[in-house]
Amino acid sequence: MTSFKAFYLPFSAQNAERCLCLPHNLCDQHSRGLGRTLGALVFAYSLWTARTKWDFSSPQIANVILFSISIIILSASRSGKIFSDQDYWRATSFYSPVFDRFSIPKLTRPTNGTFWDTEPPSIWRVRTGLEADTAWDSIGSNITPIVITAADVLALGKDPATAVKVPPELNHGSDAYIAGMDVFHHLHCLDKLRREISYKHYHEAKEGPYPGSELHEAHINHCLDVLSQALRCTGSVDMVTFNWVEGHRMPQPDFNNRKVCRDFDALRDWTVESGIDGNTFFKVANKPPPDAVVVPELKPQHHGR
């Protein structure tokens, strides 16, 4: 049964939007469209009750009206008609200003989970080469940063005093900080592991014999750890069925299952269009300004290599 949490706040124009009854995991997200509608309704009701002379039956009538509205909301939520895809993205994410700037489309698509490569081959299975490098760069390392505000930094649990500001030369105003989306960092890390498989091709000339420098190895370990945390955090419960396959004595998993996805291509395109050109930013922001707070670097912990 859906758990509901009711908010009863002092009525004012400022908090009317938040006077609503929503499933508890969406309340903190302040579902914008529904919040404004129901907030305005409850605010209007409060003004009506304050200015109207009631007869004996009026409170009962008002209670019936409000109860009926609650039933309608509950029924609509059970049928999935109240909350948008964007509301559910919010409910399964920590704070992100992206949700206020871009409505991320939802896709249902099959996974290419074949054990052997397809024909034509998937670019994401190609180990080395310019075409593969370009494809991976386009979804990870070369993605442009976006601009957020001090309020966004605080909502993320960070301190604006230590967050890097956008240089004034880029004309984003004084309340502008650089930020990036975690998905692009995850894809950068996955690409880092792809390149590590072909260490001799990508790294040996610079890093020397495998496993390379201490800094290089720390980068690989960081990526393994971060990707492990990301996968465990999302914890996909999509089902994998099994087939009897010719030449195999045991049932084999069929990884060609269907996924409900955020439209990554649309999100990437929006980021590129609305963000700061990365090359321009790092040419300008190549050293801390005089008034910047410089945080200490964490020292490496030696546990044996």
Description of the molecule:
Helix 8 packs across helix 11. This protein starts with a strand and ends in a 21-residue tail after the last helix. The protein contains 13 helices and 8 strands. It is mostly helical and 305 residues long. Among the domains are: 4-88, no CATH class; 113-139 and 182-250, no CATH class. The strands form 4 sheets. The chain has a two-stranded antiparallel ribbon with strand order 1-2. A two-stranded antiparallel ribbon has the order 3-8. Strands 4-5 form a two-stranded antiparallel ribbon. The protein is 44% helix and 9% strand. It has helices at 24-27, 32-51, 58-78, 85-91, 98-101, 130-137, 150-155, 182-197, 199-202, 204-207, 214-234, 264-274, 278-284, and strands at 4-6, 21-23, 106-110, 146-148, 177-179, 241-243, 252-254, 258-262. InterPro entries: UstYa-like. This is Tat pathway signal sequence.
Layout: helices, strands, pairs:
Layout: E1 4-6, E2 21-23, H1 24-27, H2 32-51, H3 58-78, H4 85-91, H5 98-101, E3 106-110, H6 130-137, E4 146-148, H7 150-155, E5 177-179, H8 182-197, H9 199-202, H10 204-207, H11 214-234, E6 241-243, E7 252-254, E8 258-262, H12 264-274, H13 278-284
Antiparallel strand pairs: 1-2, 3-8, 4-5, 6-7
The radius of gyration over CA amounts to 26 Å
Low-confidence stretches: 1-33
Structure class: mainly alpha
The fraction of residues assigned to DSSP E strands is: 5-15%
Largest sheet: 2 strands, antiparallel
Assembly form of the protein: single chain
Pfam families: UstYa
Organism: Setomelanomma holmii
Protein name: Tat pathway signal sequence
Family: Belongs to the ustYa family.
